[in-house]
Amino acid sequence: MRKGSANFCLRSMKRAPFRFLSVLLMLLLSGPSAFSQHKSDSLLNAYKTAPNDSSRILALLTIADGIYLTNTDSTKKLYEQALILSDAAIKHDSAYPVSSFISRRLLNFKALSLASIGYINYVTDNPVKGLDYTLRGVKIMEIISSKSEIAQGYNNLGYMYAEQGDVYSALKYYEKALPLRKQLNDEDGIATVLNNMGYSYKILGDTAKAKQYFLEALRIRMKIKDIKGISTSLNNVATNESQAGHTDTAIKYYRESLAYAIQAKNLDEEALVMDNLAPCYGKKNQYDSAFYFVHKALATYRQLKDKEGVAYAMVYAGKLFMWQNKTDSAKKYFDSAMVKAKELGYRSLIQDLAFSYSHLDVLRKDYKGAYDMYVLYKETTDSIATKKAEKESVRTQLKYEYEKRELEQQEQQKQEEITHNEETKRSRIIIWSVTAGLVLLAVFMFILVKRFRIIQSQKKVIEYQKAIVDEKNKDITDSIHYASRIQRALLTTDEYIGNHLKEYFILFKPRDIVSGDFYWAFSDSAAFHIACCDCTGHGVPGAFMSLLNISMLNESVIERKIKQPNLVLDDVRTNIIKALNPKGLDTESKDGMDCSLCTFNFANNTIDIACANNPIWIVRQKAPSRPSPSGKEIEAHKVLPNGEDLGGAVELVEIHPDKMPVGMQYGEQKPFSLHTIKVTKGDCIYMLTDGYADQFGGPKGKKFKYRQLQQLVIDNSQLTMNEQKQILEKTLNEWQGNLEQVDDILIIGIRV
I need a labelling partner for 52 at 20 to 30 A (CA). Which of 143, 472, 497, 735 fits? Predict the structure, then answer.
């Protein structure tokens, strides 16, 4: 499957100019007779012999329009020259105005030139400059152009912002474009904007809202019988369903999309849909269907000379062969795909290929090749990890800002309703008073006016004080939100962890905007380290401690290369005490953290564990107690709320923590214990802080407690990690009810 293959209807916009002034240009071409000819030499001659600036600008823009597909450098120079001439003509017109028609015409030329330069820069890898020029062009269009042109300009700006990761700005422009399209009764335009809004909500991770917009766009395209558009909308809905994990529903929509694409003879859409269908059947282990669609997609991409599509289809075809142990065929496809990936310069595709190659070479027993490809995979991963992390951080912040804006609008509407209700009540009182008589009315009005003045005076004082408080609160809240962005950027990314663990989940719910709980992971050539930590306090103090402790873990494991978990905790504790309580006085800080740290040694299927106050649970197939590699007996705790035997197929093994924190404490600073555990495939490891067990709720408002949490883990250990996370979240929400969250919550589940 092509990575990001379903880029919705915007994908087509990458292959053709999204020029929103072309209609205007054609209207202007009805002037001098020279512009009715389309040959380059005729246009050049028209430019040289043009009697005025307007004619010269038209000639330049028309020449540029004719060559933009073949020579972007020359096209850009022509548009820039047209902009220079437009600015000069506008300046001259300001000094010596002739008519409003000419003034508007020159402004149209400038808007067209700016938008065209913006497009060329955007498609030639200078998106920031392209966005700037397009924005300047649209601002002029807002003054002089029709609703249709302005709406198209807003749509294009929204697309550019979305592609840059600024989804909030993208939605702002789509929301400005939509009412204009509705005023024009332009159903095709409405469907396009709705589709793009759905794409933006998908970027924000709101798949439910994305589906709502995609289906609305589909309904309109069905109504106007836009066969090509129907195919695109169905493909968008299917991709959204696939990424939400609804494979069967996705297949249904993909097949409908394919039927419409074939009817519309849209080979691009046919190839894209078949490319998306193949992995869906692969997920269901229906390899014959998967092979059929990936080969059909590959043939169509070749017919279209789409190198990108060919490369992605070859990669997935190779994977299908590899999964069926047909290594020679898999290598053939991977080799061809690698050539195209390097030719295109797609690092993400090279990364995927290198990882697949390493697995293939292991199957072929070419261990040197497997090692070389894994090195290439790591190098490529490291080169793109930073950019991805930055983009995800920005995207998360933008998502928060947009949700905050919606809440503010809801609050404003609520306040308006309250004000309206108060005004209605006051009006009724006045009407009743009038009927009571003129005398009573006079007295009442006197009292009311006096009271109104007092209220107004008090209201002004209250509003002034409220403005001061709101401003200070906003400054504090903005600072905390920015700190949250920094803290999340320092947490290990899901992508990094996912590269080293086959199946896992992380349930992370800060009590406040920032958190004292955090997770950390690092991989070296021999092992994979992962920590689940609970710092002293929560909110801002806890967040500061989390930043300090992340730094301490990095120094111990990465810089000082300490690998054994108990020694890592010893070293971190020494450094925390040195930093926060160097003299060891009772009056100084005793801050630190509770922590469980695991080191996975995948080569020998063992886990080295050290725990400070926080336990680790292992749920595995029920068996007699087994000795750890260190020779110590591990107690198998069969947990039920009433203490009875499980009577089932699994058991819970608890790694008891050392009853001391990673930080200053009273008494002797004993070294942390090391537990070495042998694991087998299917074992589930759970690392957790005390936040979940300590949450108040239920019918009697009591703590959830560890025993109930253990039973919940055991009952659902056979489910996928993602399903387990959903059950934990649902159970917590039902237990908590309307009560406030009392502490940060962090649970990490890993299936071996």
Answer: 143
Mean pLDDT value across residues 146-161: 84
- Tell me how far apart the alpha carbons of residues 398 and 172 are, in angstroms, rounded to a whole number: 12
pLDDT at 143 over 60: yes
* Residue 534 and residue 614 in contact, taking contact as beta carbons nearer than 8 Å: yes
Nearest to 717 by CA among 605, 619, 577: 619
Q: What are the DSSP calls for 325-356, one per residue?
A: T-HHHHHHHHHHHHHHHHHHT-HHHHHHHHHH
Residue type, 368: K
Contact 273, 261 (CB under 8 A): yes
What is the end-to-end Cα distance of the chain in Å, rounded? 27
- pLDDT of amino acid 710: 95
Q: What is the CA radius of gyration of the chain?
A: 33
The type of residue at 135 is L
| The dihedral formed by the CA atoms of 85, 90, 91 and 92, expressed in degrees to the nearest 10 | 90
| pLDDT average, residue stretch 406-425 | 72
Residue 589 pLDDT class (50, 70, 90 cuts): low
Q: Are 62 and 29 within 8 A, CB to CB?
A: yes
pLDDT of 730 strictly over 90: yes
Task: Indicate the pTM of the whole model.
Answer: 0.45
How far, in Å, CA of 441 to CA of 432, rounded?
A: 9
Of residues 506 and 339, more confidently modeled:
506
Spatial CA neighbour of 549 closest among 526, 572, 577: 572
CB atoms within 10 A of CB 749: 24
Rounded Cα distance, 59 and 82, in Å: 9
d(CA 692, CA 15) in angstroms, rounded, equals 50
Whether 253 and 29 have beta carbons less than 8 Å apart is answered as: no
% helix, strand, coil for the chain, step of 5:
65, 10, 25
Q: Is 586 helix (H, G, I), strand (E, B) or coil?
A: coil
Classify residue 627 by its DSSP letter.
B
Report whether 728 contacts 747 (CB < 8 A): yes
pLDDT at residue 5 tops 70? no
- Give which of 519, 494, 500, 496 is closest to 509, Cα–Cα: 519
**Nearest CA-CA partner of 161 in 200, 187, 125, 119:** 200
Position 30 scores a pLDDT of 34
Question: Which H or E element spans position 425?
Answer: helix 367-435
The pair of three-digit structure tokens given for residue 97, joined into one six-digit string: 């105005």
Strand residue runs (E) in 102-141: none
Separation of alpha carbons 565 and 595, rounded Å? 11
215, amino acid identity? L
Q: Vertex 235, ends 231 and 238: CA angle to 5°? A: 140
Quote the pLDDT of residue 612. 95
Closest C-alpha among 319, 300, 223 to residue 258: 300
- The most distant pair of C-alpha atoms in the chain lies apart, rounded to whole Å, by 105
Highest mean pLDDT out of 157-161, 361-365, 395-399, 600-604 = 600-604
* pLDDT tens-digit readout, 254-293: 999 889 989 988 888 888 888 889 889 888 888 888 889 8
221: pLDDT strictly greater than 70: yes
| Residues 706, 699: Cα–Cα separation, whole Å | 18
CA proximity to 446, closest of 438, 383, 650: 438
Angle value at C-alpha 703, between 697 and 704, nearest 5 degrees: 85
Least Cα distance to 518 among 540, 496, 490 occurs for 490
Q: What is the pLDDT of residue 409?
A: 57
Q: Would you state the pLDDT for residue 7?
A: 32
